[in-house]
Write a structure and sequence with these properties.
Elements lengths: L4 H38 L7 E8 L3 E10 L2 E11 L3 E6 L5 E8 L9 E6 L2 E8 L8 E3 L2 H12 L1 H19 L3 H28 L5 H10 L7 H7 L2 H4 L2 H15 L1
Parallel strand pairs: 1-7
Antiparallel strand pairs: 1-4, 2-3, 2-5, 5-6, 7-8
Length: about 260
């Protein structure tokens, strides 16, 4: 018996076309589900022009805080809860380079070593440390301003330690009524403080194209003397002069000029 080819074609083709359509829709559905799963997996990643990753060795559970100093109060920009892992990542928007703090809530621990100061700037930063020596073991990468600030702190360690030792010696001499010795030690302390001041001024003038320069000026130059402030401010590039700490220094200069 001969098959009616035309009749068979009319019967089979619609079924075949429907099978192709259903197969295509199934593939499209699976593709959509895959994309949705990827989006879901990445939805926890925080966005912003500043990305921070890192690891706190030994920390398995606790909360980290990215904090900013505003009106003498630490304000939390972001918090990261760690459960069962020591690595972390976060992201947020930062208008310009500035000093931030990485705070740690250890839970029931009474340790006071819970704060890391770092000079943040837009870009990718990495902060690694340990639970046992949270601030002392901190290593910050990805910030040129922090790199310079660390270099500055390292270069003045000897002078800082000497000042601390001299203050202790002066207090001990006064306690033992050795007033002449206390006066002599105080003169040495004043000379050492002067050296620290000049060291800060020279470092600032040498690195006047970075935002760390006005910050060091405010923390280590202003408390000692106002003599070099105008020279320092005029050495800043326009960008640094208009930075957060550059503006604060300018306001201070305008204030002392009025007095």
């Amino acid at each position: 018996m001969k098959l009616n080819w035309l009749r068979l074609q009319k019967t089979v083709c619609p079924i075949f076309q429907e099978w192709i359509y259903l197969s295509s829709m199934k593939k499209l559905f699976l593709l959509f589900m895959g994309v949705a799963a990827m989006v879901s997996c990445n939805s926890d990643k925080k966005l912003g022009n500043t990305q921070i990753t890192g690891e706190i060795k030994g920390l398995k559970q606790g909360t980290l805080y990215i904090q900013q100093l505003k009106d003498s109060t630490l304000v939390t920009l972001d918090s990261i809860v760690l459960k069962g892992k020591s690595t972390f990542e976060t992201g947020f928007d930062l208008n310009e380079p500035e000093v931030l703090f990485l705070g740690l809530n250890r839970g029931t621990s009474q340790s006071m070593d819970n704060l890391i100061l770092f000079f943040a700037e837009p870009g990718n930063l990495k902060i690694n440390s340990s639970l046992d020596h949270f601030s002392a073991d901190a290593v910050i990468e990805g910030s040129k301003n922090h790199e310079l600030y660390s270099k500055y702190l390292d270069s003045r360690k000897t002078l800082s330690h000497k000042s601390t030792d001299l203050i202790k010696a002066i207090i001990l001499a006064q306690k033992n009524d050795l007033l002449h010795k206390a006066d002599s030690l105080e003169q040495v302390l004043n000379r050492n403080n002067r050296m620290q001041y000049l060291h800060a001024v020279n470092f600032v003038l040498k690195n006047n194209t970075y935002e760390v320069a006005p910050y060091i000026t405010l923390t280590d130059v202003v408390p000692v003397s106002n003599n070099k402030l105008d020279t320092i401010y005029k050495s800043f590039t326009p960008e640094v002069a208009q930075s957060k700490y550059g503006k604060i220094l300018k306001e201070y200069l305008e204030l002392i000029k009025k007095q």
